Amino acid sequence: MRQILLSRRWALFCSAFLSVAAAALGLVPYVSVWYIATLIWQGDPIGMRDVLSVGVLALGAILLKAIAAAASTRVSHLAAYATLAELRQALARKLTVIPLGVFQARSPTELKRVMADDVDQMEDAIAHAVPDIAAGISVPLLSALMLALVDWRLGIASIVMFPLLFLFYFAAVRSAKDKSGGYLAALTSIKASATELVQGMKVIRAFMRAEAMLDRFDGAVRDLASSGEAYATASLRWMALFYAGMRANLLVIVPVGSLLLLRGDVTAPDFVLALLVGMGMNASALKIIFTAGSFFWKMQSSGKRISALLDTPEFTEPARPARPAGAEVRFEGVTFRQADRTILDDVSFAAAPGETTALVGPSGAGKSTILRLLARFLDPEAGRILIGGADIRDFEQASLLETMRVVFQDSWLLNDTIRANILVG
Hints:
Blueprint: H1 2-6, H2 9-26, H3 28-42, H4 48-95, H5 101-105, H6 108-150, H7 152-159, H8 162-199, H9 201-206, H10 210-233, H11 236-244, H12 248-263, H13 268-310, E1 329-338, E2 341-351, H14 367-374, E3 382-387, E4 390-391, H15 397-402, H16 418-424
Antiparallel strand pairs: 1-2, 1-3, 3-4
């Protein structure tokens, strides 16, 4: 996934540059007002031509700002949708070459979440985060630089409180982090329960199992409600401090600016400029904090699941495919573990052609696992599996599946005729 994102780096850099340019142009009207006010404060003669010139300059800057901002958004969205298309194509190609056991280890809801929901989350992170973060960083910095050109103390006063806001925000994120895992797990659980309930309603009602399924769905709803409340309230105290501090820079600009004005170090227009710019910096600070937090959250959660699927080991095709010399199935010292649990331990047996071989054992003994290993949905950690004297790892996947027909207990029927479902195998 990293390579896909890096392939759009120049487009995203262009989007960020246009966003910074738009932020710089947005400061021109403030400078225009300050310039006229300074001339009036100094008693210099001002003509209509001067006022019109400054007004046209300010209007032109506003129009250019709108154009730059629109261009930045367009470029970032084009890059985002191109990235989404490439991600979905890469995921679709990956599904055709990974072991079939992946599809049984993961629920359809989980795979759908990666293919659709997680990729959609990347669009929001890329298309909006890049220009918003660039603008959110540049507006306070450019504003502070502009005020520093008037008086360096005003520049420092305008941004001295922002580190405290970032500390409040990251403290809020950290306090909610422990609860976020339970909330996301509850979301996945309720989606799976709802899908199971709706898709299996015919069977549930036919076998009078509606109460059991409804109890399971009700439990998922209750888990989501409790984990959602815990997640939402975990950061309440820190977020309250954060919102209270959003206007905190004025608490510094007003006394510092007043003191400088009384001492004659700055003029009244300088002080008014500091107040106007100081109030305008808050929205940008809010944008960068929330956009950057959302960007980090989505890239970490959605990106992690997408990368996990893209990094899944692929089904390796042999350089010289083997062909079976018969139909005997033989397991030799096969060991298989899953999730730190040993399911098969040094299993050996043979199933001769023309005979019926039954695998008998309690639930969880590994009967279905043996079939999955035989069809090479999964690979054993030790031992080997032979068909007609040839190791199944030396078969091409298509030719291996042509040698057998496997009917699992969790088979799915396609929305087609019985004949078509039989032909699928």
